[in-house]
Amino acid sequence: MADMDPATTTQTESMMEEEASLFSSLDIILVTLLAGVVLYFVMNRKKPEPIPEFKKLDTPAPTTRETSFIEKMKKTGKNIIVFYGSQTGTGEEFANRLSKDAQRYGMKGMAADPEEYEMGELSRLSEIPNSLAIFCMATYGEGDPTDNAQDFYDWLQENDDEDLSGLNYTVFALGNKTYEHYNAMGKYVDKRLEELGAKRIFDLGLGDDDGNLEEDFVSWREQFWPAVCEHFGVEALGDESSIRQYVVKEHTDINMNKVYTGEIGRLQSFEVQKPPFDAKNPFLAPVTVNRRLNKAGDRHLMHLELDITGSKIRYESGDHVAVFPTNDSALVNKLGQLLGVDLDVVISLNNLDEESNKKHPFPCPTTYRTALTHYLDITQSPRTNVLYELAQYASDPKDQENMRKMASSSPEGKALYQSWVLDSCRSIIHILEDMPSLKPPIDHLCELLPRLQARYYSIASSSKVHPNSIHICAVVVEYETKTGRTNKGVATNWLKNKLVTDNGHKSTVPMYIRKSQFRLPFKATNPVIMIGPGTGIAPFMGFIQERGWLKQQGKEVGETVMYFGCRHKNEDYLYQEELEEAEKTGVLTQLNVAFSRDQEHKVYVQHHLKKNKENIWKLVNSENAHIYICGDARNMAKDVQAAFYEITEELGGMTRTQATDYVKKLMTKGRYSQDVWS
What region holds the Flavodoxin-like domain (predicted)? Predict the structure, then answer.
């Protein structure tokens, strides 16, 4: 009866009541009706939806990315692979330079992102004659691997029974001596590969970004290639000519909807936003607040608030927000004028190696203007390889000679590069201005310039209090160079100009969240000691908000101690009202502020730590306090650490060695955390 319509059902029921004696006849009628309805349903029902498999036939299969680097190397006749762990692009840049170098030595190389390949295949590299794996590995944060090398790091840690006896390798590490765990990732990869049986064919290279990373790399590279040639018994071809990696294609007739206008990943991703949001798919967050924090002085310290309503973005206190800045349009126009080119031509730079996973150096097709605004770094000092490649385009022999000298490994060349480029903070624009004979083709320049990178800021809010808002605290970078020019920080000046409404439009910031290990203790009852002078206060604003929220929830919260420092109380005492209110309400149990220049002798946060040494030692040694430091790595973080050594030595009755070990153990246990930069 289920397949019959309601009218038929009603009619049948009344007939049964009136004519019980005709039951058998009605039975026949019912069966006939039922058959008729079924036949009608079969003939007239809608056809079922096509099986989803048909969709697969209509949709072109996504291009499957080759995850076997061994098969790719065999297919393309390459014998050298350069893996990179890179957070800011420098490791990738060095890897590309080394893979290009291979050609000059009669070999064939490829740069590779370990995240894109099956690293368990390293044991198979011996299948390729004269093969070599080079690892350009940067260290991020507190001795951590970069995001793209995390899986490789995990693989190395987990595979004790891996046999890499057929693998020839070398490592160049990128780090910064101001950090506690200098070049930890590069050192670990070098040591671990040897433990697994691989053969190191050249010494580990250590690059120090606090010194001269470029010089460290060039010096290592100059010795590395002769050692490789000797190991494999090959002779250098001596080919020092420029090697192009990409070829330019101009698009004269193209649908502008197919042209990238600044998107990081998916075309038109800024028009149609789709979560999840990450480094390849940033969220356009509207700016709801942009205010100056300092009351006076010649610096500009600012507080911004980004609205993440509806984005499904989640963050924790201590996380970082990454933003994608753009270059100043005046600088982009200046570059176009110096080269005498139309910046609005639509182009693609296509990789000459058709098998490469990296088809373009930046999203293409696009215009030169977009590339120079959104994708390329035009303000940092160019590395020596850029000078070398561009030297051929200088019509003045003297300019050519100087550029090649600066790119060489000779002492005179290194000294000239240091003084004329690095110490003078010359960008590519400044070099073109000061060498009028230098007129490189813009496509070659775009091939050589590094990618403009995301900038990371410690989040200055708590998601418990501000679930739909992310706060940033930053100081605008601006300084005069030795040549009398004014250089401006790309990201901070861009953020400064992000007004809440700009010509009636909401200003937006492309952003995503990078998770951090900088976390409040799991137990709210643990005391916290926060040390953050200047903009280093940022994550602690989030911590203070969160501890206040916990108290409001009726939770027991341990002592919350803040050590802040600035130059002058009446100028740059950041978040003064908020901090004093937190102290007044008991959220902050102690607020210690060092005003470094308000008296004859300078006073810093470490001086306040020593002054309160008994209380510090009680909190740390007896009450399981967690220590947090944020800000300058070069001086402040080291001075604060030295202060903790002194306090531990004096009040713990230890030798300096024992005190150092005590603090190191706090670090290991996650009770001494740093979020520092140089």
Answer: 80-225
